[in-house]
Amino acid sequence: MTTPKALSRREVLQTAGLLGISAAVISSSALAAEAGNLSFAKDSGLVTGKMKPLKYESIPGLLTKEQVTPHYQAHYGGALKRFTTIEQQLDGLYQGKDPLGGDALAFIHKDKVNRMNSVLLHELYFDGLTPKPGDANDDIRAALSKRFGSIDRWSEDFKVCCMAANGWGMLVRDVVNGRLYNVSSDLHEIGVVWLGQPLVVCDVYEHAFYVDYTNRKQEYVTKFAQFLDWNEINSRFRSLAS
Amino acid sequence: MTTPKALSRREVLQTAGLLGISAAVISSSALAAEAGNLSFAKDSGLVTGKMKPLKYESIPGLLTKEQVTPHYQAHYGGALKRFTTIEQQLDGLYQGKDPLGGDALAFIHKDKVNRMNSVLLHELYFDGLTPKPGDANDDIRAALSKRFGSIDRWSEDFKVCCMAANGWGMLVRDVVNGRLYNVSSDLHEIGVVWLGQPLVVCDVYEHAFYVDYTNRKQEYVTKFAQFLDWNEINSRFRSLAS
Amino acid sequence: MTTPKALSRREVLQTAGLLGISAAVISSSALAAEAGNLSFAKDSGLVTGKMKPLKYESIPGLLTKEQVTPHYQAHYGGALKRFTTIEQQLDGLYQGKDPLGGDALAFIHKDKVNRMNSVLLHELYFDGLTPKPGDANDDIRAALSKRFGSIDRWSEDFKVCCMAANGWGMLVRDVVNGRLYNVSSDLHEIGVVWLGQPLVVCDVYEHAFYVDYTNRKQEYVTKFAQFLDWNEINSRFRSLAS
Amino acid sequence: MTTPKALSRREVLQTAGLLGISAAVISSSALAAEAGNLSFAKDSGLVTGKMKPLKYESIPGLLTKEQVTPHYQAHYGGALKRFTTIEQQLDGLYQGKDPLGGDALAFIHKDKVNRMNSVLLHELYFDGLTPKPGDANDDIRAALSKRFGSIDRWSEDFKVCCMAANGWGMLVRDVVNGRLYNVSSDLHEIGVVWLGQPLVVCDVYEHAFYVDYTNRKQEYVTKFAQFLDWNEINSRFRSLAS
């Protein structure tokens, strides 16, 4: 069964009000989730400043440990380290320790977007794969079929986006209109959708596949679509959908 | 008082379950908001395919009607028109009328992100201004003070981002970690944050200010911060916050 | 008649050698041009650090003085001022006054490319227009006809590139293979050709036309092609062509 | 001794005119170089449509054959293949076989810049390395010392640019002002200098080093600077310098 998303304190109190129930009777367990109601967000390095642990050190048939380890440690870890450094620099600036402005600040403001995206997308990439994949199910299956005609047709278009991208191929849900889009992104900070929620995230930076596939990107992208953790993707889909 | 955000049907039912109440007793009024629980989203052209009406045809002291009219009609309207054309092209492709692939599809996949962002950001820009501005209030005031030290300090950093940008200067809430960031974006599709929610949106494409200010961008940006509709911005801030 | 490009000292001596003539008999007038053999380069702000004077303060029928003045003063002048500041910063760094590295240097390294391109392209834009245009002639006419079928067909494709661009539409000669290309550039530093020589340069940043045309970009672009100084463009074409 | 660059027919005739010699007496051998006077250009795939042969299948101590082969075959070869396809498409369009315009043309116009740059830079990268490196010499040595203080100081700054880049780190000579710049480029079409001549070209796309170095980019970049073919770089430097 899918797990319902956690509700925020405000949401519970608000609904209780609509239902004519005083806050006093609401159990504390329902109020636990103050920090964020997105299943994939709570352990994110963007929240904790620490690396989110890998679910799998390899995905047999798709990615070896030799491929995954430097990817996770150096690329994900490196982006997170730089992000936390920038957060500290911004905290220092905003607390008045330095004047605001100058070339260094201009650089930090642009670089932070690159790093934030890199951290989040790497987490969604690693967590979206499983060595024991099933089929697309529940809400996400219905949504993909409705938008793309069929899962196969979605997959075909998704591969087009991956092959055209230098950075990331993605299935994205636009939070504003609720529609699904396949997206090609050439760099962490390029080709991004404001209020777009990445659901399926394929890292096509060459560091993601070059150990196992060298330049055989098409083979990597094709196999990638066969090892998706559809329970995870379905959970993402439900977490921000109304 | 601020209005609580609408809840989705699922959320109400879920909370009702936590509270031990059957769905049957929940009033239908509480279930109205199926389509999306973001206040700024429901009339968006990304949802309706139609131009969201202007709240104000001018903002005396900031923008004349001569500045606003072509901006709204040609730039916002043009992006929306192109977006709806692309949606139709994608619908046709996904319904199997054409094979997927080729140079035209590659272009559409990249262009759609540019247009989607342009539509949303223009709506947030126009709707975020008021001829009768008040002060930052409630949650957003507290959040800005906490992150930036003070509203003034936020404003100073925000202007740095606007001056450094060729497209958009923004205050953004990262939906994943809940933190606030000022952001510089050089083109609709560049410098964007995945799952970033734009709260304050300043269009610094030259079409936004050249009629009224020609090259005096600094003056435009400074005045812009004085005509913000903080009720609207606060409402945005609350709509996706936990 | 077209003026032959100046030869460098080395070229004259080299040819003299091929011809069996000693350097001693070569007149000093042939040796004047040490500094650079590109007609458009010798007064460039990239060389002198000073603004290249405008040939025309307006182009009646295309651009008013109200349009040209802030464009020249603020946009061209601003880019040049920033470029000269960066040059001074780099000189300081390279002379060992500061350690190399850090966020500020990272920013300067990227920003300088933006500014260098802005300076050069603005000079080529202003100098490429004339209030008394003739027809394309000589070498450039032949080259355009050969590549694009006809001048009209080139012009049609050129307008496509201008309309698709957010920054610059250009006719470019690739110095490596000698072929002509129409190019769309979205920002000063994007969509650029290594060893590409811009011949016809249309500024489509909105500051270039918004005073005179507001959003009527198509009208601006169409008229632009009617006020080209083909003698100047032909001179550019010959200056780097073998 | 360094080889003087070939002169074009026009240059020889022009100089002959200055020297008072009729064209009739100029030997035909001096007129051979019609196609282009840049040493690195004459065999470029941009000219011939064919892959420029590798000088070395590996650079012992820097790059193995396992690293070089897919890089050369798939990445350089792939860019060249796509470039030649685009050239054919453009030829077809310009000869009137198809109307000009549409999404496919918009894509081709942007994609061609990416591919042209990729072809040229890969050629300069491979040709700029040698298994038996010497020291920087002649003109380039003097120019580097003048600009950067010393070769070491240039090298230090060059590595900064390589580490900051996602695509290419380069030493570039601006053809307009003759000055040297280190440049960081994130994608083939980004961070490029109009009329910039790449002299030292380091491919930092991950495909360039991931087989031999995985994520140890710093080690790769440091070693790269030790295997430069300074004769080749000096020849490039002289070929467009006055």
Explained architecture:
Four copies of one chain form a homotetramer. The first copy, chain A, is mainly alpha-helical. Helices cover 49% and strands 9% of the residues of chain A. Chain A is built from nine helices and three strands, in the order H-H-H-H-H-H-E-E-E-H-H-H. Chain A has helices at residues 9-19, 45-48, 65-94, 102-127, 138-148, 151-164, 210-213, 217-224, 230-240, and strands spanning 168-174, 180-185, 196-203. In chain A, strands 2-1-3 form a three-stranded antiparallel β-sheet. In chain A, helix 3 packs antiparallel against helix 4 (102-127) and helix 5 packs across helix 9 (230-240). Chain A starts with 8 loop residues before the first helix and ends with a helix. Chains in contact: A-B, A-C, A-D, B-C, B-D, C-D. Chain A binds chain D through residues 70-71, 73-75, 166, 186-187, 205-207, 210-211, 214-215, and chain D through 70-71, 73-75, 166, 186-187, 205-207, 210-211, 214-215.
Largest sheet report of chain A: 3 strands, antiparallel
Query: Numbering strands along the chain, what is their spatial order in the largest sheet of chain A?
Result: 2-1-3
Helix content of chain A: 40-55%
Summed up, the helix count of chain A is: 9
